[in-house]
Design goal:
heterodimer; A: alpha/beta; Helicase, Ruva Protein, domain 3; 2 domains; five-stranded parallel β-sheet; two-stranded antiparallel ribbon; globular; B: 425 residues; mainly alpha; two-stranded antiparallel sheet
Chain lengths: 326, 425
């Protein structure tokens, strides 16, 4: 691995180069799922949390651990079960006895890491789910009267199984809104599956090397926030979010203002990942799906007609092209 | 201004203009629309002007131009760079350099086709050809439109002329006149106003001629009346010189206008009179019975003219015209006037005397004995309402007398006889 030149953290060209190297390194450990890797990278570069929806065994844990290694970040996995308590996530105060007497000491929970994999988050009770809320939004954990700041960067990657709904607690809209992206993990193709088997069942796996660290990731986020956006692109972005609130027989509830914020950040990060320093209409279009699909609540008509959230988003994107001037 | 857009929009607008022009031309084929060609050209011009105005108002801004350029695969680099020209910063600078680099390397991508699509041009060409083709295609409606236009133009001139006379009449010092004389002037004014109405209603040469003949008569009569008034005033010696001069001037003017009009109508009257002699004259007479007053008048006069010169004398055109009866055309036509529209068909208006009756005291060219009265809304010659059968009988008698006196061209006798015989069947 090339040594990180920390003096160039503010150099956009250098940082773009490092981020591209990170993506390539992650792809060494994950066969296929390039789009998924790209989108998880986008979320990381903008400080957003990701909800992954897909069948078990598709490499979600491996993805997160690989990211952790590439970015040199601490990684914790929490398996959510119905009997998981909030304190199992956040940590708790325990009594310490010594020569001076007894005192309370805060024992950190697994949430105290840079990367958290909240596996099958919908299996835990809402009370436990909400324990993650503060951490995800505020990047702090409050136990008793004391708030503990989580180390930056902090990134939650939660998973949920789309088909096993027995004994689950679907995430409320308020909590869903705190996830920047909802990503759909598709089943690999035959070729990809062959590659996965060869990679995991072979005698040796390719070494995953560190390409960046937490500090560099934060510097990259700072740079990305400065990427300029043309007025027309901004108008287009807002037009899309507003269109989710326009009368539409397929939408019961449109996206929140957080969607617009997430869309701007995601579009900027996508441009950066592609080596551009400006946001294009295409960046906005591609970011619209992961940003909006869990923020739009489909109407009964849409559900009964088998129209998915992605179908609704496609229609909105097709119908709102006035700002693009094309 | 976006030239490509201008050309594209121009073709579309001109197509709309050509479509409108085509519509005018189609309408002109079936309805009298004299200015169809002008409207067609105006539609073209308006369409193009509208495009210019719209393009001027909605002219392309630099941001829009940059956005358009970005459409050629520059991923909004150019518009972003343009909008952030005044800003500084590492990222902004990098973005600007990136945009310039991309623009330099891929300048050839920017190809905006100036020529509008061939389909649109073809449509425009087709519409223009159709419009022009229809504009030169002859039709009855177009002939009618031309006639109507000519009539309206002439009528307008006459209306202006009459208004001028009315104005002059009103300016005469009426306070020096007796009530009777003032009433006369009022009647003159009203009579002229009714002539304006007639001109306004005229929609054919025939109606125009009738109105002109009537007006000519009125002018002459008014001239005479004014002369009488002047004479009366001078006799009474109670009038100012200025008023007398003005009235005299007006009388001379009216006389002159009447003479000019008669001289003009001599030419056209001959044709009408001749027609009166033949089938056309008879035909007019027939249709005049149940139709419009002018139709009756012309027909009647046509026949009357054929019979004698005296009637010609009434309208002052008798000299030399003889049978052509143009005088009667005017005379009897005027006699019917608009009044006959509401008159039952079995009554027609005839002159109070026929020339060969010996009762006519006037001379050719002198209308002093002609009298007129106002009936309803028109100025009519004084006449008696006579039943249709009586009139036909009288005409028939005159016709047979004419045949006996060999006044008609040889060969016409049988036709005349058959004509009158047809009324008895």
């Amino acid at each position: 691995m090339a040594e990180l030149d920390r003096s160039r953290w503010n150099d956009p060209a250098y940082m773009a180069q490092r981020i591209a190297a990170c993506e390539r390194e992650i792809q060494k450990g994950i066969v296929g799922q390039r789009e998924l890797i790209r989108q998880v990278m986008l979320a990381m570069l903008t400080g957003g949390n990701v909800l992954l929806e897909g069948m078990p065994g598709l490499g979600k844990t491996r993805l997160v651990s690989t990211i952790g290694r590439v970015f040199d970040l601490s990684f914790k996995r929490i398996q959510f079960t119905p009997d998981l308590m909030p304190s199992d996530v956040t940590g708790t105060n325990i009594i310490i006895k010594n020569e001076q007497g007894s005192s309370f000491s805060f024992e950190r929970g697994p949430v105290f890491a840079n990367l958290i994999l909240a596996d099958e988050i919908n299996r835990a009770t809402p009370k436990t789910q909400s324990a993650l809320l503060e951490a995800m939004q505020e990047h702090t954990v409050t136990v008793g009267n004391v708030s503990h700041v989580l180390e930056a960067p902090f990134f939650v990657l939660a998973t949920q199984n789309p088909i096993e709904s027995e004994g689950t607690y679907p995430l409320p809209e308020a909590q869903l809104d705190r996830f920047m992206f909802k990503l759909l993990v598709r089943f690999p193709t035959r070729e990809e599956l062959k590659g996965i088997v060869a990679l995991t069942e072979g005698s040796k796996e390719p070494p995953i090397e560190k390409q960046m660290d937490g500090e560099g990731l934060l510097a990259a986020r700072n740079l990305i926030n400065q990427i300029p956006i043309a007025d027309a692109v901004m108008d287009y972005l807002l037009e899309i979010v507003m269109a989710t609130h326009a009368p539409n027989p397929h939408i019961r509830e449109g996206a929140s203002p957080r969607a617009a914020q997430a869309l701007i950040r995601a579009a900027r990060a996508k441009a950066f990942l592609e080596g551009r320093f400006n946001v294009s209409f295409q960046d906005v279009k591609e970011a619209a799906y992961p940003v909006l699909r869990h923020r739009i609540i489909p109407a009964f008509d849409a559900i009964s007609a088998g129209i998915t959230e992605d179908d609704i988003i496609t229609r909105i994107l097709d119908a709102n092209t006035a700002s693009t001037g094309r | 201004m976006n030239i490509a857009d201008l050309l594209k929009k121009s073709v579309s607008a001109l197509s709309i203009g050509a479509g409108a022009g085509l519509l005018f031309q189609v309408v002109a084929l079936f309805a009298p629309l004299y200015y169809a060609d002008l409207y067609m050209i105006l539609a073209f011009l308006l369409a193009e002007m509208a495009v210019f105005v719209v393009m001027l108002i909605k002219r392309t801004t630099m941001e829009q131009a940059a956005l358009r350029m970005d459409g050629f695969g520059f991923d909004e680099r150019i518009v972003t760079a343009y909008e952030h020209l005044d800003e500084e910063g590492a990222l902004i600078r990098l973005q600007r350099e990136d945009a310039m680099k991309q623009l330099r390397e891929h300048r050839e991508r920017i190809q905006i086709p100036l020529r509008p699509s061939l389909k649109r041009i073809g449509l425009l060409f087709l519409l223009i050809v159709l419009s022009v083709g229809l504009s030169v295609l002859p039709s009855g409606a177009k002939d009618r439109a031309r006639e109507l236009h000519s009539v309206q133009e002439e009528a307008k001139e006459k209306e202006d002329e009459i208004e001028e006379i009315i104005e002059a009449l009103e300016q005469l010092a009426q306070e020096e006149l007796t009530e009777e004389q003032q009433e006369m002037l009022r009647e003159m004014t009203e009579s002229l106003e009714s002539s304006i109405a007639e001109y306004q209603q005229a929609d054919s040469d025939k109606m125009l001629t009738a109105a002109s003949q009537k007006l000519s008569y009125k002018y002459e009569n008014m001239s005479s009346q004014l002369s009488d008034i002047i004479q009366d005033l001078q006799d009474g010696a109670g009038v100012s010189v200025v008023s007398a001069d003005a009235m005299q001037e007006m009388a001379d003017r009216l006389k002159k206008m009447s003479d000019m009009r008669q001289a003009k109508s001599d030419g056209s009257g001959t044709g009408q009179g001749s027609g009166g002699q033949g089938d056309a004259g008879d035909g007019n007479g027939q249709s005049g019975q149940g139709d419009t007053g002018d139709g009756n008048g012309n027909g009647q006069s046509g026949n009357g003219a054929g019979n004698d010169d005296g009637q010609n004398g009434q309208s002052g055109n008798g000299d030399g015209n003889g049978q052509n009866g143009q005088g009667e055309g005017g005379g009897s036509g005027n006699g019917r006037g608009d009044g006959s529209n509401s008159t039952p068909h079995d009554y027609i208006s005839v002159p109070n005397a026929v020339a060969d009756s010996g009762n006519l005291t006037g001379n050719v060219g002198n209308h002093e004995t002609s009298e007129y009265f106002r009936a309803q809304n028109g100025l009519n010659w004084e006449g008696a309402h006579t039943s249709y059968e009586e009139v036909i009988g009288s005409y028939e008698q005159n016709a047979y007398e004419g045949i006996a006196a060999q006044r008609y061209p040889s060969g016409m006798e049988d036709i005349i006889k058959e004509y009158f015989a047809s009324f008895n069947n």
